[in-house]
Amino acid sequence: xxxxxxxxxxxxxxxxxxxxxxxxxxxxxxxxxxxxxxxxxxxxxxxxxxxxxxxxxxxxxxxxxxxxxxxxxxxxxxxxxxxxxxxxxxxxxxxxxxxxxxxxxxxxxxxxxxxxxxxxxxxxxxxxxxxxxxxxxxxxxxxxxxxxxxxxxxxxxxxxxxxxxxxxxxxxxxxxxxxxxxxxxxxxxxxxxxxxxxxxxxxxxxxxxxxxxxxxxxxxxxxxxxxxxxxxxxxxxxxxxxxxxxxxxxxxxxxxxxxxxxxxxxxxxxxxxxxxxxxxxxxxxxxxxxxxxxxxxxxxxxxxxxxxxxxxxxxxxxxxxxxxxxxxxxxxxxxxxxxxxxxxxxxxxxxxxxxxxxxxxxxxxxxxxxxxxxxxxxxxxxxxxxxxxxxxxxxxxxxxxxxxxxxxxxxxxxxxxxxxxxxxxxxxxxxxxxxxxxxxxxxxxxxxxxxxxxxxxxxxxxxxxxxxxxxxxxxxxxxxxxxxxxxxxxxxxxxxxxxxxxxxxxxxxxxxxxxxxxxxxxxxxxxxxxxxxxxxxxxxxxxxxxxxxxxxxxxxxxxxxxxxxxxxxxxxxxxxxxxxxxxxxxxxxxxxxxxxxxxxxxxxxxxxxxxxxxxxxxxxxxxxxxxxxxxxxxxxxxxxxxxxxxxxxxxxxxxxxxxxxxxxxxxxxxxxxxxxxxxxxxxxxxxxxxxxxxxxxxxxxxxxxxxxxxxxxxxxxxxxxxxxxxxxxxxxxxxxxxxxxxxxxxxxxxxxxxxxxxxxxxxxxxxxxxxxxxxxxxxxxxxxxxxxxxxxxxxxxxxxxxxxxxxxxxxxxxxxxxxxxxxxxxxxxxxxxxxxxxx
Length: 839
Hints:
Elements: H1 7-10, H2 30-47, E1 54-55, H3 61-65, H4 81-99, E2 106-107, E3 114-115, H5 137-162, H6 167-178, H7 181-185, H8 190-196, H9 199-210, H10 214-230, H11 234-300, H12 302-312, H13 321-326, H14 369-377, H15 382-399, H16 404-410, H17 425-444, H18 448-471, H19 479-505, H20 510-529, E4 536-537, H21 546-552, E5 560-563, H22 574-577, E6 580-581, E7 584-585, H23 591-600, E8 613-614, H24 625-629, E9 632-638, E10 646-649, E11 653-657, E12 665-668, E13 670-673, H25 676-683, H26 688-693, E14 694-697, E15 720-724, E16 728-733, E17 743-750, E18 755-759, E19 762-764, E20 767-769, E21 773-778, E22 783-789, H27 793-817
Parallel strand pairs: 5-6, 5-9, 13-14
Antiparallel strand pairs: 1-4, 2-3, 7-8, 9-11, 10-11, 12-17, 15-16, 16-22, 17-21, 18-19, 18-22, 20-21
């Protein structure tokens, strides 16, 4: 049911001269254009170094790893490590593959091969990421970041205008949302920002549906939810979906209550009997609309969701509630709501907390927004105050470790692999931004209660700021550092209090004072956030070396290397150089690969057994035999390490030959069926010749085709790797190398659903052998085996996407022509003109 608030209350009445509500100042379009200009001004202030040839990317990390020229200026902070170690390799690989005309479904460069597109972290299906096919990551990533925050500003502004707030209030809320502490702390993380910025669009779609335009609202919100899910940060996308659902529930209950009240008021006692039924109908319509919204979101994102669900069945699920709580933000960090650098700043090298928190400023939303947010609680539109308040409370409870975490994380296996509960601060900042926009809107409407609330809150916060500045409770940062920032915050809050009083008291100066208030909030956030991830010269973030070139030019079609001791290369940079490494880092790693890691790293300390990485091996006298099984023919180690077989060396690391490494594919004459636990136990004591003589096959339907193993088990011969592409591998067994009774051809790449095999042109089952590898049973004689990665989930996902688009078309047509849209009254028939005649 459409609810009408009345044109004179929230929006200018277009049938009369437009006025700014509550001020008496006529400015219909000027205020809107000025409010948009304020957004543009703040956006330019944050992004202008782009026109100077700089990039918003931590290129300075390359100075450590590759001796490239170090940028002049502040170094990147700890929040940028994942941007360099994971996003740079992933986006480079994605761009190279797309540029070559391939959709990267599989990544053979890390571990023993892992699915790429099915990994939701890579953002393969997020449209902005396709731009990486046209340029290098630092430059393209900077452009994506700039457009993303511009979209964030405009979408948040649009959403707040849909709520019928004053244009300046909408500008303030958009600026606070886009440049809050959370968004600045993660501003070099494309997946986090990409998943977060669609929240206002999703909420705006819910509001459109509530106002009666259910079809368009469901489409807008569904598209926003889908884009959030595709961006590459499932945890943040999950929070966006949670907040949208919470907003929708409040909207539905509020709409039902309004219908019931309006029915009673219009029809008295007789209307009261039908009011509950009308309210229930409104709830049902709202629930169906939200089901359609989430259905559209799931449908459009299904190509990624299907792959992620398949992947979820293969990964280890070991993250528990205790691990999640380890990532919560300490309660003392709430002091950074007043002084963002109260505990130091990584850019200033005085931040003493563990990098798990990334930044103490994760909850900063501008000191001036806090009294405005308090004023927003007393806005006349209680539903909006309640909705923004609940969003903020949800973010506060989750980020700071309330028991709510057990419900929203532990029961979801895929999301529990991303222990980033501190990311729920996103919702805290979103709620504060919305309440602050409501507060400024209430001041412009000259609300006495909101004015008093803002005044009292400003006084209390000024006193708290002064106390923190003087006494520095709970921080060890120097007096000078805290004093300078505390005095700055006192000046901002005091000036903002004065401007807010002008907004609430003076009708002639309200608009001017409100614009200055918006600029002051933007300046406060700029001082905090602009230098947090400094722009840097566009120097190459990576550089090759003779050692890397040596690894890339080894004669094998797939030379595989491993690192020892300290990392000589960032963990995923095999993807950048086209190499093949056992080491790597990813929030999602198949459990079978982690079991192999236990054989490689069993003598490392427990703290190094991280479930999202295969770390460099510890220094030992002999390398484990499993490295030979995996075809590792080169080992990199810190320069200066003594050892035979030195192939190349530079001032950072040396490359050693791995004697005894197996070829990429080989024939094993004997087999034994063993569970994973039994196979791991036996593999701990197996030598290289043992692996070449007997393969351990996991139980399965295809095991029955093996028959009985031969009586003798000599070491099997090598097979020939004819072709090795990312998703197409061809192996041949020469006739002279074949054993009389045949055996199992082992390819030392990961077994994974979606891989198919043909043996001499006919389909053949793939065995899972030695816990995680691929095997195909062959008979005597020569053979050709072709492995292809042809998963079904992309086809199923595309089919569901097509159905979703068709459904959206039907909904859009129904929304335009169907029920719920008032039809224009029929035109009256034209009156006959009087014929000219005499009077």
